[in-house]
C-alpha cells in the first residue's frame, strides 16, 4: 500500500490484498526448503513490485482487471526461481531413504 500510494494518491485495499497474495504465492513453492529470513525476503519482494508487474501486463494489452496474472503468474515464477536461489540444504528428509520392500532394480 505504501509502495503504490505516491503514484495513485489513495489508499487502495485491493492493491494491498494483491500484494499479500503475491507474497504468499511466491513462498508457497520453497516454503519447506528455506530458512525464515529467506522466506521473508522471498515474500516481501513480489509484494513490493506487484503493481509494476500489473502495469506491465496492462501495457501488453492483456485484459486482467483484478491482477491475477501478475499475482499468480509473475509471483509464482519468482517463487519457483527462488527455490534454487535460497534453498538452505538443511531441511528435507533426514536419515536413510525409506525402503519399499522390493528388491532393487537395475
What does this structure look like?
- With 106 residues, the chain is mainly α.
- It has a domain at 25-86.
- Helices cover 59% and strands 0% of the residues.
- The protein is built from four helices and no strands.
- It has helices at 5-8, 13-28, 36-59, 68-86.
- Helix 2 (13-28) packs across helix 3 (36-59) and helix 2 packs parallel to helix 4.
- The termini are far apart.
Number of strands: 0
- Globally, the shape reads elongated
Task: List segments where confidence is low: pLDDT < 50 over at least 5 consecutive residues.
Answer: none
Largest sheet: none
**SSE run:** HHHH
- Strand composition percent: under 5%
Give the radius of gyration: 19 Å
Q: Provide mean pLDDT, rounded.
A: 81
Helix content: 55-70%
Output the structural class: mainly alpha
Tally of alpha and pi helices: 4
Please report the distance between the alpha carbons of the first and last residues.
57 Å
